[in-house]
Design a protein that fits this description.
The complex is a heterodimer of chains A (about 375) and B (about 425). Chain A has helices at about 10-20, 25-35, 40-65, 70-75, 80-110, 120-135, 135-165, 180-185, 210-240, 265-295, 300-320, 325-330, 335-370. Chain A has about 375 residues and is an all-alpha fold. The termini of chain A are far apart. Chain B contains 11 helices and 13 strands. Chain B has helices at about 1-25, 80-95, 110-115, 120-125, 145, 155-170, 180-185, 250-255, 330-360, 365-380, 385-395, and strands at about 35-45, 50-60, 70-80, 95-100, 105-110, 135-140, 190-205, 220-240, 240-245, 265-275, 280-300, 300-315, 395-405. In chain B, a hairpin with a 5-residue loop joins strand 1 (about 35-45) and strand 2. Classes of the chains: A mainly alpha (about 375), B alpha/beta (about 425). Chains A and B meet through helix 6 and helix 11 of A and helix 1, helix 6, helix 7 and helix 10 of B.
Chain lengths: ~375, ~425
């Protein structure tokens, strides 16, 4: 079972299930608070940048196909510098896992109309996360295959609702204050962008020769297209009050067909979303655990697999007791640091691997010449 | 050995988590039966400047046959704020209010005339447990009385009101203003919104089947009337305050200018002489209607272009002689006359609304937003502050195209 390599299709499902939900809850609301009805432009920029980085990450994957990001760093920059460089990725995964877990818990909590205390949801979610971590990467990825159908249906219904209620006038006027406010706001959203970086932890488990590139690029393209379209529809539906809607894009579900046929249908969409939340939490926690285990060179990962979800869960609940605390942290300096790693460090790693490969080729040529 | 130890550890963690969940009081789930499900809410003036909140609560019951049914009761609470009033209601119900199924928010006219209602509605709007699809309505009567009245559609009054609003939607007899739409309009530069009116109508109660010795044949009515609800004229609110009611003509104009008119039954009086020179009344069914409002700037003047396209069918013509062998030319001439009358009628409706907006100084058709979307900062810097001044500066250019289809004329009949 463990020898079976992941297929491109599975990475496609992973991207489709894990990435779009992230940028549809809270985040469009935050974007609207920053730039009003031009919020969708932030998502357009993120989509372009992330699809380009999906390509960069694929190139990195083909340069060192048998390694995770930790191994790649050590291979490109040597043991000491490479380990320090790799630490930034471990911290990035840990930070993202923590933030996304908290977002997921808050979502589940709010979906049930806050009738129960938040710990009532957090504890089972941590327990399920521990179970998933023990089962390993392949189980998590195969779970995303199952959830994919449901989440695709959720995207479809949200699109349907958005198109049905779209009023293009709500998107007007576009960029009334020019592009500067949007560009200034963009770095505040790096906490939620650049998530294709998780692929660097899965390429070593994938069969890179069987069309992975094609599936990853299609997956990234479709995922970000969904994000962009749904965010345009969100602004096109809520307009000037988009910044008030905490549930953001998911709130579109309420308007699928009000009162007549699908009364309370939004509950079904929310339920599907929760399944997506689980997969996303599993994936980011897995990346944190595996990268940390490789960095500290421990072979006994079981303890980490039990303790890490608990630690991430507890820290996120203690740090962000209110949504305001979460907002300030997510949009603050840590967002800039996230961008620095998920874009800056990835680019450096790519350059490092290219240089390493070239120097290796030159060395091999020299060796051949001397022999 | 190590593997087994780790396995035990996992079980130990799982069991301790379950035990925590079982014994920790906060983890106890709250059953849905112990919450108070709110189906509708009403706000009105209370005593000493307080707000009186009435909530309609659903009572799940079982009828004689054992199947589930539901009835409703209305509970009120008075306080300075919505949350304080909610607390007072909770003291009466004994359980938390569950807002997710709240279908209507009814504002009392006097309350809305005196105070900006948005700070009260804001609590509902921002709450994740409240669906923003709930309709906002205005009533002259107390919302408590409204919620205690019956509707012909549903046992639960609020859901009945919601159905009435859904049913009128196609005929454009009223408006469905969701809480989301209300809030959006409140914060837009126009700051105005149109909401549906609701009022109580007293009707005689059906006395049941025929009784022995009943000479009326069973169609007797009880002396006591039944309070039922009807949609009344729509109202305009500006910056959350009640401004006035709209006539049917002004409502139609609003629908054309806000691009929401779909279909409508219209009766046009005395616009056309019949074939035997009597005053005629034209009954028209307008359908497939589409209106487009475009802002333009030409020769130093702002122009609002209203393009209307609609199909119409003549459904009744009083005082028209039934002529079976009417010639094709005559029929076409008559049709074009009717088209012109309908077009003029639509134009009059739009102008009536325009004048009403100037008169009340209230831009409830979002004209300011239309121009701002198109001309952005240039408009923002040059537009007058008051609505009436702004509207007076804009030239209204209506281009209406109505085409009569099918053999609606076959339904002509002669009266008298």
């Amino acid at each position: 079972m463990n020898d079976v390599k992941l297929k491109g299709k599975e990475l496609f499902f992973l991207l489709m299930v894990a990435i779009p939900p992230l940028l549809m809850f809270f985040v469009p609301n935050y974007a609207a608070i920053y730039v009003g009805i031009d919020a969708w432009i932030i998502f357009a920029l993120i989509s372009v940048i992330d699809v380009l980085f999906a390509f960069v990450i694929l190139r990195i994957g083909t340069l060192a196909p048998d390694k995770t990001v930790i191994g790649m760093c050590r291979y490109a920059f040597g043991e000491v510098i490479g380990s320090i460089f790799a630490l930034s990725f471990v911290l990035l995964f840990g930070y993202k896992a923590m933030m996304y877990f908290r977002q997921g818990v808050e979502y589940v909590y709010l979906s049930t109309y806050t009738l129960e205390p938040i710990y009532y949801f957090a504890v089972p979610m941590i327990a399920i996360n521990i179970y998933a971590q023990i089962k390993g990467a392949k189980t998590i990825l195969r779970l995303s295959n199952i959830v994919f159908i449901l989440i695709a249906a959720a995207y479809f219904f949200l699109l349907l609702s958005g198109i049905r209620n779209l009023d293009i006038r709500r998107l007007m006027p576009v960029m009334v204050d020019g592009p500067v406010p949007i560009l200034e706001a963009l770095p505040h959203f790096f906490t939620w962008s650049g998530n294709v970086v998780i692929l660097l932890m899965f390429f070593n488990k994938a069969d890179m020769k069987t069309g992975v590139s094609k599936y990853v690029m299609i997956g990234a393209g479709i995922s970000y297209a969904i994000i962009l379209v749904l965010n345009i529809l969100y602004i096109g539906m809520f307009g000037i009050i988009s910044g008030f809607i905490t549930g953001s894009v998911i709130e579109l579900a309420q308007y699928i067909n009000t009162h007549v046929f699908f009364n309370s249908f939004d509950s079904v969409i929310k339920l599907i979303w929760i399944l997506g939340v689980f997969i996303r939490d599993f994936v980011f926690t897995y990346c944190t655990i595996d990268s940390l285990a490789e960095l500290i060179k421990t072979k006994n990962k079981k303890m980490l697999r039990i303790l890490m979800p608990v630690a991430l869960g507890i820290v996120s609940l203690l740090l962000f007791k209110k949504e305001e605390d979460y907002f300030i942290t997510a949009m603050g300096p840590t967002s800039y640091l996230s961008g620095l790693v998920e874009y800056g460090a990835v680019l450096l790693l790519w350059i490092g691997l290219i240089v390493k490969k070239k120097s290796k080729n030159t060395q091999e040529c020299n060796n051949e010449a001397t022999t | 050995m190590k593997k087994r130890r780790n396995g035990y550890l996992i079980y130990a963690v799982a069991i301790s988590l379950i035990l925590m969940a079982l014994f920790y009081e906060s983890f106890q789930p709250r059953s849905i039966e112990t919450v108070t499900i709110v189906s509708g809410v009403g706000l009105e003036k209370g005593q000493d400047g307080k707000v009186k909140m009435s909530v309609q609560v659903i009572k799940p019951e079982k009828n004689e046959s054992g199947s589930s049914t539901s009835s409703c009761i209305t509970i009120t609470g008075e306080a300075d704020s919505i949350s304080a009033a909610s607390e007072k209601i909770i003291l009466k119900t004994g359980s938390v209010l569950f807002w997710a199924h709240c279908a209507v928010i009814i504002l009392q006219e006097d309350f809305a005339a005196e105070e900006d209602v948005m700070p009260y509605l804001d609590m509902f709007f921002r709450s994740m447990s409240f669906r923003n699809t709930s309709s906002v309505l205005l009533s002259k009567e107390s919302p408590e009385d409204i919620l205690n009245s019956a509707t012909v559609f549903e046992m639960v009054t609020s859901f009945g009101i919601q159905k009435m609003l859904d049913d009128q939607d196609y005929d454009s007899n009223s408006v469905y203003t969701s809480l989301k739409f209300f809030t959006e309009k409140y914060y837009m530069p126009c700051h105005s919104v149109v909401v549906s009116g609701i009022s109580i109508m007293e009707v005689g109660e059906y006395g049941g089947g025929s009784k022995e010795g009943d000479s009326t044949g069973g169609d007797s009515k009880n002396e006591s009337g039944v309070k039922t609800l009807q949609l009344s004229p729509c109202a305009v609110l500006e910056r959350g305050k009640f401004k006035g009611y709209l006539t049917d003509e002004e409502l139609n104009g609003y629908k054309w200018l806000s691009q929401t008119m779909k279909a409508k039954l219209v009766t046009i009086d005395a616009k056309l002489k019949s074939e035997n020179n009597q005053d005629n009344t034209l009954g028209v069914s307008i359908f497939g209607a589409k209106s487009k409002v475009k802002a333009a700037y030409e020769d130093g003047k702002y122009i609002l272009r209203v393009n209307v396209k609609a199909k119409a069918e003549i459904i009744s013509l009083e005082n028209e002689i039934q002529v079976n062998d009417i010639s094709k030319e005559k029929l076409e001439k008559r049709s074009s006359e009717f088209e012109e009358i309908i077009e003029n009628n639509i134009k009059e409706e739009i102008i009536a609304t325009w004048n009403k907006m100037i008169e009340t100084d209230c831009d409830y058709c979002s004209i300011r937003d239309t121009f701002y979307s198109k001309f952005r900062k240039a408009w923002k810097n040059s537009a007058p502050e008051t609505c009436s001044e702004m509207l007076k500066q804009i030239e209204l250019d209506c281009n209406i195209d109505v085409s009569i289809i099918s053999g609606g004329l076959n339904k002509r009949y002669f009266v008298g």
